[in-house]
C-alpha cells in the first residue's frame, strides 16, 4: 500500500511539473504570437516596399518591348514586324508570289521565317496574360500557322524543281540521283530512282548512316524518296496560351477600377486646391491621361504639377504590382483534369514531348525530266505539281499486301543537341486526326553511342521522337546560392542529371550539366538568354525541369498551396543576393499550407565552408519561424528554436540572425535580377516538385 502511495505522489508531482513547463511554454508562445501580430502591419509594409522591384522590373520589360518595336521601325532592314498584321500579311503575300526558288534559296529564306515565328511565340509567352488581348492571340497564332504552312509548301515546290533535273544530276556509279543539304535548321536527303534496278534496295545517303531498305516494288518504280529533317517542330498543334480565367480577370479589374477611382479623386482634389478653377483642373487631367501613352518626352512638357505626376506613377506601379502577382499565381495553377480525351495509340502531349524536330518522310512520283533539244532544255510541267506516291496502294488484295508491300525499314540520325535519358519512342503524324500516334511502327532499335534509330514504317508520313516530359521530376534536391552581386547559381539534381543555372540581371545561362554523374557538353552552355527563351531552349534540348498545370497528374508531387508557394519564391528571390537556400527533407513532412527549407547567410568574401551551418525555416506565407529540429533529426516537429521569434516575412526572419552587410546587399538588389530569380523559381516549382 505504502509503495503504491509513493508512486502516486511521484506521478502527480511529475505531472504537475510537466503541466507547469507546458503552461510556461504556451505562455511564451502566446507572447511571441502577440508580438508577431503587433508588428505584422509594419513588417508587411516594409515587404511591400521591397517587393516594388517586381512591378519595376515589369515596367522595364514593357518599355523594352516598345523600344524593340521602335528600333525595328528605325532599322528599316526590310524584314516585317511580325506583331503588326499588315506587315506580316504583306510579307506572306509577296513570298507566295515568288516562284521557282531553289532548295538553297528556300533554306536561306527559312532563317528569316523561323525568326519571325520565334518572335511571335515569344510575344505570346513573354507578355503577361493580363496584357494579352484575345484578338491579338488569335492574330499571332494565325500568322504562325500561315508562315509554317507556307514554308513547307516552299520546300515542296523547290523539291519539284530539283527532281525535274534529276536525270542531269545522276550519280555516275549508281545512275540514280542523290542530294544531301545540311543547314543549321534543316537537313534534307533526296534520292531519285532513275535506274529502277530491282536489286538496288538498300539506300544509304553518302557519308551518313541515314537511309532506307525499300521493297522490290519501289525499287522498280518511277519514284523519289525524300527525308526532310526539320530541327524544329511545325507539325504539333500550337499549345494553348496561358490565359487567366474570367473570375481571375474580374478580381484584377475590380481592383484596378477601385484604384483608379481613389487616385482620380486624389488627383482632382490636389489640382482644385492648386488652381481653384475646375475647368483648368479637368483639362489638365485630360492632358495627363493623353501623355501617359506617349512616353516621357511629353510628360515633361505637360503643365501638370509635381504631386499628381508622382501619384500617377504610384498608381501605375500599384496596378502593375497586382497584375504581376496575379500572373505569378497563374503560373502555379494546377489543372483539375487532362485537357482532352485520348484515342487509342494517341500520344498524350501533356505527358510526352517531341524532341529533335520532325522527320518528314515522303515517297514522291518522279516528275517528267528535262530533255535537251537543239541547245534548249525542254520540260513538261504538271499542273498539279509534286505528287505523292501512295504506298501501300489503297486497293490491294489482302493476301498479297503483306508480301508485296511490306513495311519500309528506316534509319535516322538523332539530332546531336538533344538529350534522351531513356531510349526514344517513335511516333507518326496522323494528318486526319491531327495527332501523333504510335501504331504502324514496329521493330524499333536504338544505338545510343552512334545516336541511330531504326524502325519499320507501314506507310511514309512525318515521324518524330518522343520522351516522357517528366523524366526529370520530381527533383531529388536543389540549392540556390549567391555567386556575386546580383548573380546566383541554381543547382537542381534529378534522378539522371544535375543542372547548374546561373542567373544575373534579366538573363539565365546553363553553367554545367552532368548526366549520370559525368560532365556532359551542351550547345547551350555559356549562352546568356532571357528567362523565357532559356526555358524554351532547355525544353528543346530534352532538359525539362519546368512543370505545367497538368504535370501533377503524371508525377507524384509534394503539393503546396499556390499562394504559399508564390510568397515563398518572391521572398527567396528578394534575399537571394546574400542568402543561400536549399532543399530540406522535412518539406514533405509538413502540410500543404507550410513549406520547410534551409537557409544561411552567404557573403561573397567568405571562403566556401565544408559543412556550412544551415538554419531550418518553416514558412506558411504569412508566418516564418526557425525550427528546433535540424536536417538529421529523427522526427519532424514544428517546435520553435530557442531564443527565436515568429515573423510575418522571411526578410524579417533572417534579419534576426543576419549581418548588417547581408541586409544591405539585399536592399541593394537589382530589380531585374530579383524578378529573373523569382521567374526561375516559379517555373521550376522547387517546393512542390522535390
TrEMBL record:
Annotated InterPro entries: IC97/Casc1_N, IC97/Dnai7-like
Residue ranges constituting the IC97/Casc1 N-terminal domain according to the UniProt record: 3-199
Family statement drawn from the similarity comment of this UniProt entry: Belongs to the DNAI7 family.
Region (Disordered): 266-298
Lipid biosynthesis as UniProt keyword: no
Keywords: Coiled coil
Biased amino acid composition, Basic and acidic residues: 270-293
Coiled coil (residue ranges): 2-47
Keyword Cell cycle part of the UniProt annotation: no
Annotated protein name in UniProt: Dynein axonemal intermediate chain 7
